[in-house]
Amino acid sequence: MKQIILPTDFSDNSWRAMSYAAQLYSFEPCQFTILHTFHVSQNFSEVSIAVDVQSLQKDADKSTADITERFKELDHHEDSRIDSIAKFASLVDAIRDLEEKDPSNTVIVMGTRGANALGELFLGTMTSHVLKHSKVPLICVPNEAEMRPPKKIMLAVDQDGVDRKDEINTLIELAEQHQSEVSVVNVPMEKDALFGEDLAEKFVIDHYLDEIPHTYYNLPGEYKEDVITLFAEQHKMDLLVFIKRERGFWSNLFHRSLTESMAYHSDKPMLVLRS
């Protein structure tokens, strides 16, 4: 059973991300885990910290229980399970503990902007930390994202294409469940296009996507994130998909400033896969 981790700070944006996750995975039984974490200021004395943690834990338990009951009212597969965790910990550490249970079958879904200053801090900085440190696919849901099934998916690839089928398993599963069309796009670093008629990478991706309808696009342009964003807008994409690598253009893409331009300031959900 797939594990879906749903970080929340109880903001409207985190709720939208949770609702989007329920919609995405309504066709299969999943283990949904609603996760809230909290800290105490280091300025407190040890006694004050102990008292404050108890108070915060009580409030966190109640708020987490309330939002869990609300989440249960959404449409899910009848065999899905819904649990919740509220704990004194960093979000990244709490997610790491969960994803280690089944890393090949876990997805994180979280918002990228909050409705207030506190939400902005949590869902901006925290999403950046999760993006950097987690080892499983992450779906970022912007505050302004349209809540609709991903019928049109864009997969952006670098010059290395797709190394292995398991890199894009999450994409394949979603495309099959929602009967999606996939647009595979590349912004060539040089003059040579990645998806020429006789180039091997196209045949590799054809094999991986199999019966999923898909088309290829080479997108010329100097500023790759702008080119990709424009393509997504013009073709009315519902979900943007990237493979996070530790080398080349995509490693630069996921530096904070560029991540903000692609994810935090976009109005489209973004799925970040791991190489």
The assigned CATH architecture of the largest domain is 3-Layer(aba) Sandwich
Strand content: 15-25%
What is the H/E string?
Answer: EHEHEHEHEEHEHEHEHHE
- Structural class by helix and strand composition: alpha/beta
Query: Which outline best applies?
Result: globular
Order of strands in the sheet with most strands: 3-2-1-4-5-10-9-6-7-8
| CATH fold topology of the largest domain | Rossmann fold
Q: Identify low-pLDDT runs.
A: 114-123, 254-260
Average the pLDDT over all residues and give the rounded result.
83
CATH homology superfamily of the largest domain: HUPs
| Helical residues, percent | 40-55%
Describe the structure.
The structure is a single chain. Helix content is 41%, strand content 22%. The chain has 2 domains: 2-141, Rossmann fold (3-Layer(aba) Sandwich), CATH 3.40.50.620; 152-274, HUPs (Rossmann fold). It is of the alpha/beta class and 275 residues long. Helix 1 links the parallel strand 1 (2-7) and strand 2 (30-38). The radius of gyration is 19 Å and the shape is globular. Helix 3 (91-99) packs across helix 4 (117-133). A 10-stranded mixed beta sheet has the order 3-2-1-4-5-10-9-6-7-8, sandwiched between helices. Mean pLDDT is 83; it is low at 114-123 and 254-260. The protein has 9 helices and 10 strands.
